[in-house]
């Protein structure tokens, strides 16, 4: 018996990294998965997005846990495409219980940008991280309410959603602003959806061992961070968490063990936020 037997979870940014790990963990706990990923690059972003092959690999990994998964290509910035992918998944599985709004980009740069590049990074990071999170919730909430079984939404924010760091350029400022914005979205939805027993929370990871944190553009940004760098280190002796560490927090928040936990900003950060 898994804690999520019979439940269905919708996960964005599912082709690799934390999204893939959440899919595998929730499937191991008994859930079936509806997953989307952009599977195409975003030109202003300094590292590549996942591929269709990686999305297929996530489906295979979920199936290896005994779960079922409907995986499709959709950009969270395109509400109608996202909704169509989710609606098809709900039609396939017959219900929706859990939502992980996980897709995100971090367009940090440490080089001279033209003003056009700077503005484009701001727009793209806010569109993906904040508008995309809103689209995800907007598409999912009618299914959760119609199910009349409650539900759980978890938005993936960041330590940058609770503390002010990110430099002076559009990408870093947009990352911090979007991740703070997700907290406002979460708090408001937690109040609005409480009468339906739909719980809404955020997780705030410190640096995680995925493409987002481990790529040449991010490495050069961190090495040249204007205020130094030591404050980007965790008090606990770990520099990068593993995706599974975040999945463990998600698995708790979406389970009945957390049935009265809502409106919470949940750091998984090795003490990072408490330090500052
Ligand atoms: N890695 C870190 O250090 C870290 C720290 C804190 C928070 N986060 C957050 O965790 C979440 C997951 O990131 P990750 O670490 O797994 O990085 P990642 O880059 O490995 O994974 C992000 C996934 O989202 C997908 N994606 C990006 N834009 C999309 C869009 N417009 N539509 C659909 N899919 C899209 C990518 O293709 C990729 O598969 C993000 O929201 C990120 O901001 C990451």
Give a brief description.
This protein is an alpha/beta fold. It is built from eight helices and seven strands, in the order E-H-E-H-E-H-E-H-E-H-E-H-H-E-H. A seven-stranded parallel beta sheet has the order 3-2-1-4-5-6-7, sandwiched between helices.
Architecture overview:
This protein has 276 residues and is an alpha/beta fold. Helices cover 43% and strands 14% of the residues. The chain contains eight helices and seven strands. The chain has a seven-stranded parallel beta sheet, with helices on both faces. Strand 1, helix 1 and strand 2 form a beta-alpha-beta unit. Helix 1 packs parallel to helix 2, helix 1 crosses helix 7 and helix 4 packs parallel to helix 5. It is globular, with a radius of gyration of 18 Å. The N and C termini lie far apart (41 Å).
> Can you list the strand order of the major beta sheet?
3-2-1-4-5-6-7
Number of helices: 8
Shape category: globular
The CA-CA distance between the termini, in Å, is 41 Å
Unreliable sequence segments:
none
The chain-level mean pLDDT equals 95
Bound molecules: nicotinamide-adenine-dinucleotide
Strand content: 5-15%
Structural class: alpha/beta
Order of helices and strands: EHEHEHEHEHEHHEH
How many DSSP-defined strands?
7
Radius of gyration: 18 Å
What's the helical proportion of residues? 40-55%
Major beta sheet summary: 7 strands, parallel
